[in-house]
Known about the structure:
Number of domains: 3
CATH topology of the largest domain: Adenylosuccinate Synthetase, Chain A, domain 1
Helix content: 25-40%
CATH architecture of the largest domain: 3-Layer(aba) Sandwich
Largest sheet: 10 strands, mixed
Radius of gyration: 21 Å
Number of helices: 12
CATH class of the largest domain: Alpha Beta
Strand order of the largest sheet: 9-7-5-2-10-1-11-15-19-20
Strand content: 15-25%
Bound molecules: inosinic acid
Amino acid sequence: xxxxxxxGAQWGDEGKGKVVDLLAQRAxxxxxxxxxxxxxxxxxxxxxxxILHLVPSGILQADTRNVIAQGVVVDPAVLVRELDALxxxxxxxxxxxxxxxxxxxxxxxxxxxxxxxxxxxxGAGRIGTTGxxxxxxxxxxxxxxxVRVGDLLDRARLDARLDRVLDERNATLTWLGxxxxxxxxxxxxxxxxxxxxxxxxxxxxxxxxxxxxxxxxVLFEGAQGVLLDVLHGTFPYVTSSHTVSGAVATSVGVPxxxxxxxxxxxxxxxxxxxxxxxxxxxxxxxGDRLREVGQEFGSTTGRPxxxxxxxxxxxxxxHRINGFTGLAVTKLDVLSGLETLKVCVGYRVDGRxxxxxxxxxxxxxxxxxxxxxxxxxxxxxxxxxxxxxxxxEARGYLDFIERELGVPVALVGxxxxxxxxxxxxxxxxx
Length: 430
Ligand code: IMP
């Protein structure tokens, strides 16, 4: 019995949803602990595509309880829409399937409006956010004036919270040139949504602690990626939550030593949405090819993702922060058909070579990738069912990643379907 955290090791969009879906077959509990509906996890099961933004990916498993913990910021309208979509697929979602922390902060209409207003004001200096109100919602947590999910169940509590925050947020909206939010209509809608969510709202963290203390298999599902962490990422082009493995302890409230395994999800190449540094970015036809073949368009915003070579120097940095015990390399099939593959193994900065991503933004801006070249492979990998059946060069590529990072590859993705995953090691035990 063990607990396992799944971390996007790059800038998000590594294919975590599929891995969580696979590993959730064993987990009795799947916990989302940070981020909000800026995430989008695409699951393909029996040929049917489901995109989840807030509901943990374990929802498709019959005997798995899913938890939205307090570190998540919840847009109740989005959550209710997602529950309606699952119901339309015939999936019953009651408290045995999903619970939501009463302490999770709510993404309010003014957060979305401020997010949009700020981005347009920043112009060329914008972050490239998903526009879902994530940053302003986390600001209100830090400023101790957030509306929390539990407040949606009680008009008096909701009113008291709004007294602390609404005037100031509306003043910001006016300053940004946006419409202020009308209080009464917003309150009516929030209370309606609160009623819909009421059966699922509870002290979710207590249930998670009970589960880890009882040695139940618990999967913690990270969203976004290490390089988007508000502290450790490529600041200021980051999201507003902690995306690293340590966040499980603080965002859920379980002792750090209760997390047994850390699976880093590594896409076989790199992608990034939004602005910010991306040393191995390919702005040529090869980048376009990776985007087309890999279908690199945001599952939340539909934006085309920037694509580039695998960056092991960035991954080395990510590993040092997260302590990966295993890796899942996803989308290996996308690299098929290339003559030669480049992999960044370090950066040249001011005449010297460093082997990990520089944390300082000024230094990073001057960093030039140093590439190793590996032979590519031909042929379609999507029907490959074992490591031995992979072309020799593809195995060489995986070996190179393993050697450079000193972390074993546990899973390899060769296509979008649940079954298109090679299981080399058990991430729950190795
Ligand atoms: P925010 O999280 O909407 O504030 O956006 C901040 C940055 O994080 C932007 O560059 C977004 O494109 C990026 N981002 C947020 N969520 C995701 C995700 O799930 N995948 C990839 N990038 C994301």
